Amino acid sequence: MSKQAAKERAIKLRQNGYSYSFIADEVGVSKSTLSHWLRKIPYTPNKETVVKIGKARARSATVKNEIKRASIRKAQSEAKKEIGSLNKRDIFMLGLGLYIGEGTKSHGIVRIVNSNPDVIKLALRWFQEVCGLSKNNFSITLYLYPDSDIEACVNYWAKVTSLSKAQFNKTQIDKRTGKKVYKRGKLPYGTVHLTVRSEGNKKFGIYFSRKIEAWMNEVYTK
User: Fold this and answer.
1) How many Å apart are CA 210 and CA 215, to the nearest integer?
2) 109-149, pLDDT tens digit by residue?
3) Residue 113 is inside which H or E element, if any?
4) Partners of 173 in the beta sheet?
5) 167 Cβ partners below 8 Å, 6+ apart?
């Protein structure tokens, strides 16, 4: 095929909605040459091209997803080896770090606020296994949105924490009009305020708050 014939064939194929890759294979020229020949030719992909593009994207998405899954599996495997088993001191420091980030640090109140069930379970583990509290030393206040299902949220957190529903205070509804609506869907079960109560044991009253503050100060100064 002469150069002129190839160009005419390429223009015709482009006008009929074919991609550069298809045309390059058909007429035997490079894509750079096609770009020079066809840059002013209006292009609307035909059905065949659209189908091929869809399949190529699907293959690309499949490959990307598999690469992502393989990366996650590798990270999980490495993390399992690197973390190993946790001893009591590990849990102590982990919980203290959690409190530094998520805990109340004023008015003598011991409280952790979070919406992640794993974080709340870790906090409970720290309080009980390291600090010596029992289940009776906790109360929960849920902060929800106006469209939240209160009963479903209470049931959810009661299951997560293994605490009695009698330990749940009156649910608080966030009615602020300036609150961004998108946050509602991101926090379907609201936010937990997990509070320690002394139950008559001075060790877990204001002294406990001071003890946690002392622990944090020790970490800050090391």
Assistant:
1) 9
2) 999 999 999 999 999 999 999 999 999 999 999 999 888 99
3) strand 111-114
4) 144
5) 135, 136, 138, 139, 140
The separation between CA 171 and the C-alpha centre of its own chain, rounded to angstroms, equals 25
Q: How many residues in the chain?
A: 222
Which amino acid is present at 207?
Y
Q: What is the pTM of this model?
A: 0.70
CB 36 within 8 A of CB 69: no
Sequence-distant (6+) residues with CB within 8 A of 38 are: 10, 11, 14, 20, 23
Amino acid at the residue 25: D
Kind plus residue range of the DSSP H or E element containing 157:
helix 150-161
* CA 103 – CA 218 distance, rounded (Å): 16
Question: Residue holding tokens 């469209």?
Answer: 147
Q: Which helix (H) or strand (E) holds 63?
A: helix 47-83
In whole angstroms, give the CA distance from residue 119 to residue 20.
Answer: 53
